[in-house]
Amino acid sequence: MKSRLGLSDTTTMLALMLVSMWGIGMNVVFSFQVSQSVTRYGNHIRSTRLGMSELTKEEVGNNVRDNSNNFIGSVAFLIPEDADRVKSKYGSKSPVENPTILEAVEHMSKKIQWFSDEAIETFVVTAPIDENDVSVMNLLKNVDALIAFNLQLDSDVKFLNNILETRNDENNYDELQFSRQCHFSFDCAKRPLLQLPNRVSIYQSEAPSISSQVLPWTKAASAKRMEEQMTGLFERWTSDEFTVALMLFFNQFSGHEIDWVKHSIDATWEKGPIQNAQELYSMVDKCGDCIVKCVQDEECKKCLDALTAVDSRDQVSSYTTLVSYESKLLTDFSCCILQKNNIFNCDAKIPIVPKVAPITSWRGKALTRDDAQQILIAHLADEDAPEGGLQSQVSWIVAAGANVAYDQFPAQNQIFYKSANGRGMWYDPVFRVETIDGRSVWCKRHYKVRDGKVPGTFHLSVLDNGVTSNEFWTIVSVADDLSWIIFHYAGAAGAVGQRYLGGLLCTADGLLPPESERDEIWKALKSAGIEPWELYVVDNRKDTPGAIGAGEPPLEFYREKVLSSKRKKAAAAEILIE
After folding, report:
1. Nearest Cα to 276, choosing from 540, 18, 15?
2. From CA 493, how far away is CA 461, in angstroms rounded?
3. Are 212 and 206 in contact (CB under 8 A)?
4. Most buried among 151, 159, 216, 254, by the most CB within 10 A?
5. How far is the C-alpha of 431 from the C-alpha of 436, rounded, in Å?
6. Do β-strands 361-362 and 203-204 pair in parallel, antiparallel, or remain unpaired?
């Protein structure tokens, strides 16, 4: 709906929008490639990047930057000698123990490569370091992003401090290189006179300039905002958010765009006043009526206000906010601005990596498309369900999920069933949300499902809060008795420039499979690029205050229409036979 407002209306709308500015969206997510991780072994640095064997230290030191067209930057992790024994803070909500620092860092090295489409090099360097080792010293001093974890020995902390002092001295670099660097340290021992300050570009956390604090349009202030945002994401201790933080840095300071996070639908100092004004005018001109209705509605306005406080590319915070205030007004608002008019010129395609292989057989036979559809329907009381299903109200219940934004919600019910004409399928996830204002509510979606080219793969599409998302699902593994299944999904919401990846471990009752079966399950997850410690165990209890307060889930909300249509067709067929 296009709206043209008079001058007074436009002035009023500008004021309203400046109050609300600005956040809507479903947010950023993640791509997949192969990693380069480098660690110290005697006189060599060993690379595990695909197609590469051992490299000499000189070769690695000389290749921190290269001239290839797709090269964007480099990241180095500095970890202690006992990193293979010390537990990290990652995986606190998973069904397995926390990974070691080395395990976490090596996997995040891969994710950095995946998210950047292999345009960012990654290195893992183990302390202690011989300061006469020129190549390693040059690597740590010149790498674009340096991240130190859990250095505790006095010698290691002092070494890190010396490296950071060198990196903080602008006289050691040309202006461009200095502005493209950052470094952070986490859980390193505190020592007198050793501050280990963070730095992002020209902003240093322990020595902030006046301009970074009082002049928000300056480069220093922009770097300060990035340092605060990255720190916040790092301290959530998830592999996804750690990687997104680095992608945001490289997107802003490397001189290159990172597809995963290049789109922002917020009004920001980084965009500048001209682009902000153009986007605001376009919103008012094309969607004025929707904006007025949303801003004048108390709940819709609450959502805009809450979204103002977060970066729309922070998928965890923004999606939680969206599902907390779902309404038709909000859907119309975002649909007009984002989906119909694409005010922010966003685009995104479904990630094509990792190359996750579907199952090829089930119950001792080659998998067919009909088999794969039956596996989806599984335990649902439905005429198309396979033998061995429980004939319950749902197909599957999510026991654990891998996407930090979308797979942590309590009570995630999955309902798969064939369409009334039998030529496609529907998927209705019904899940419970603990809203940001303390309520417990049910949310539901209605996906169209089409078979992929290969049995065991599917194309899904859904309209979620006014924005269309397209997804590609793969059945990674499934028990013959339907006691558990693993899905992998990759998706994109083009109108908000988002790409995302995830994985689901589902069971008939929502409980984790028995210990005796988990080794097989963990192996299957790893084949899809998911470490077991990245999973989030879903709360499927029915006796919690939130579950009781939300009431019964609306499981048949969409399916009842399909069942009604099928009953009418069956009745009509019987009449014809008679």
Report:
1. 18
2. 10
3. no
4. 151
5. 16
6. unpaired
Place of tokens 């899809």: 528
**For the whole model, what pTM was predicted?**
0.86
Residue for token pair 């993640």: 30
Phi, psi values for residue 504, rounded to 5°: -130, 135
HSE-up of residue 432 (Cα within 13 Å, Cβ side): 23
Return the structure tokens found at 449: 């499902």
CB count within 10 Å of CB 318 equals: 26
Residue 159, C-beta contacts closer than 8 angstroms, at least 6 positions apart: 127, 128, 129, 131
**Distance from C-alpha of 332 to C-alpha of 245, rounded to nearest angstrom:** 31
> CA dihedral in degrees (512, 515, 516, 521; nearest 10)?
50
Residue 104 tokens read as 């976490």
Handedness of CA 288, 293, 298, 302 (dihedral sign): negative
> In the Cβ-directed half-sphere of 252, how many Cα atoms lie within 13 Å?
27
**290: number of Cβ within 10 Å:** 24
Cα–Cα distances in Å, from 105 out to 48, 238, 421? 13, 11, 50
- Residues in the chain predicted with pLDDT less than 50, given as ranges, are 1-68
Neighbouring residues of 390: CB distance < 8 A, sequence distance ≥ 6:
379, 508
Per-residue pLDDT, 37: 38
Q: Please, how many CA atoms are within 13 Å of residue 85, restricted to the half-sphere of its CB?
A: 3
Q: Name the nearest CA neighbour of 128 among 168, 151, 147, 156.
A: 156
Phi, psi of 10 (to 5 degrees): -65, -40
Contact 179, 200 (CB under 8 A): no
Fill in the DSSP letter of residue 171: G
Q: Which one, of 148, 242, 246, 236, lies nearest residue 196 by Cα? A: 148
What gap in Å lies between CA 247 and CA 258, rounded to an integer?
7
pLDDT in tens, 75-85: 999 999 999 99
Strand boundaries in 330-403, DSSP class E: 361-362, 365-366, 396-401
In whole angstroms, give the CA distance from residue 530 to residue 490: 13
Q: How far apart are CA 386 and CA 379, in angstroms?
A: 8
* DSSP secondary structure string for all residues of 405-471: TTS--SS-EEEEEE-TTSSSEEEEEEEEEE-TTS-EEEEE--EEEEE-SSTTEEEEEEEETTEEEEE
Starting at the edge strand found earlier in the chain, the sheet holding 38-41 runs 38-41, 44-47, 55-56
CA separation for the pair 26, 23 (Å, rounded) = 10
Residue with token string 């999920």: 401
**CA nearest to 534, candidates 499, 491, 493, 504:** 504
Predicted local distance difference test score (pLDDT) of residue 578: 59
Write down the pLDDT at residue 20: 40
pLDDT of residue 70: 81
Helix, strand or coil, per DSSP, at residue 489:
strand
